[in-house]
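Subject: complex prediction, re-run

Hi both,

The earlier run crashed halfway through, so I resubmitted it with identical inputs.
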Amino acid sequence: MSTIVTRFAPSPTGYLHIGGARTAIFNWLLARHFGGTFLLRIEDTDLQRSQSDMTQSILDAMAWLGLDHDGEITYQSQRFDLYNEYIDKMLETGHAYWCSCSPEEVEAMREQARQKGLKPKYSGRCREAGLGPGPGRVVRLKAPVTGATLVDDMVKGPVSIDNAELDDMVLRRGDGSPTYNLAVVVDDATMGVTHIIRGDDHLNNTPRQILIYKALGFDLPRFGHVPMILGPDKKKLSKRHGATAVMEYETEGFLPEAMLNGLVRLGWAHGDQEIFSREELVSLFTADNLGSSAAVFDKAKLMWLNAHYIKESPASRLAVLLNAFLERRGFNNLDLDYLARIVPLLQPRAQTMAEMAEKAECFVVADEALVYDMAAVKKFFTDDVRGHLAHLRELLAGLCCFNHASMEAAVAGYLEERELKFKLVAQPLRVAVTGATASPGLFETIEVLGRERALARLDRALSL
RNA sequence: GUCCCCAUCGUCUAGCCUGGUCCAGGACAUCGGCCUUUCACGCCGGUAACAGGGGUUCAAAUCCCCUUGGGGACGCCA
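This time it finished cleanly. Structure:
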């Protein structure tokens, strides 16, 4: 039997954003789930607005998310001949005609319709004029004026639109280039695309495209229109809502699996399950569970997912990422093995890698450059406490095994002898060694820091 | 303006197709508590929703209609 073919068809006019990434994910999952093919097509027919570096950045973002495509990438800009071939075919079969109306004239027609409270459309003036080619002339689809066109949508269900609502759309521009609707249909049909999941905003376009499919005698694919992603104010997500480009999230320290998981849950669900591995998604995803109402993008939930995946990741992998984030903060030539020992202490404490890097700073900063929270120093370093700190410093210096268990035991013993509570020295020690009042477990921290650095910091703290 | 789509806690959603098991379940966020050497993690608990109105039915979150609200489309953009 025929296998599923899906596609993602971004236009290289900007970065891959949240919404585009989600439709890419849905199409990718549908293909992978059914063992089909996932194609990638760059819609760059608008030479003015398309930028080649944008194509690369879209590819990079997809690679980051792990959305691999099959076969070669199709570029619409290289298929103009093909489009023209089909336009000519429609001209021959009487499904299209030449029109000499200027854009201004058409705009006037629309304005007139608007005045009457009707839907603005082209009047069809040249429809029966029997015009031939000519400079500046466009080719229009000779669309049916009666009846209705039905879209049997995978997510919206049956959607019917009166053909009277549609006008004779332009297929070939005055400069000879094909329009979007024509190119999309020719591409999807010739590329063998069987299922198209795309944004809600294309739903109104679909009947028009179906008309072209019919005029060309192509089989119809299945369409699925997923709702738009909204900002917290329920308006279409845009830059003013903060980060919209997928790769901005990488910069902020999100893991690709968190992004994938988070995005797929916007408009798709599988019962009460929240966490999905890539493999699970592939095996569970079908268009059946796609929701039909718009979703607000909630960064807080993405944070939670990211924190979850950070906790799950092996330290060695995170160490590499942490290194990159620390480099951005000006720390170079760090030892990955050392970072891998810091990571476990920070895994439950960081929601993003950027946050982890921030918290890791006190581990990688030079002892003499460690910044102390002076308010804390003042609060905790009383004369009495300084005395204990000095003793503890000697105790740590003489410890046989420098690990947190023996450290803890030694300190406990010291305190017990004097009938003191651990609370008395816990925060002072923490401040002395990390400079701050909040940190991972005290002894784990000291262990990772190592004897030399811990003692150096204790000495420095005592001199403050 | 015209057409199309949508409507369950603040947010993501389950349930809706195949009415009763739902005085609506989960998750994030939030609030309280526990744990505790700080900060987190974790655990326990709380607040919180079927937009409104009409039908249909013994019974409606679930089916139908209307209203309202939101979104989208009406390009020689994609």
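DSSP finds 19 helices and twelve strands in chain A.

- K.
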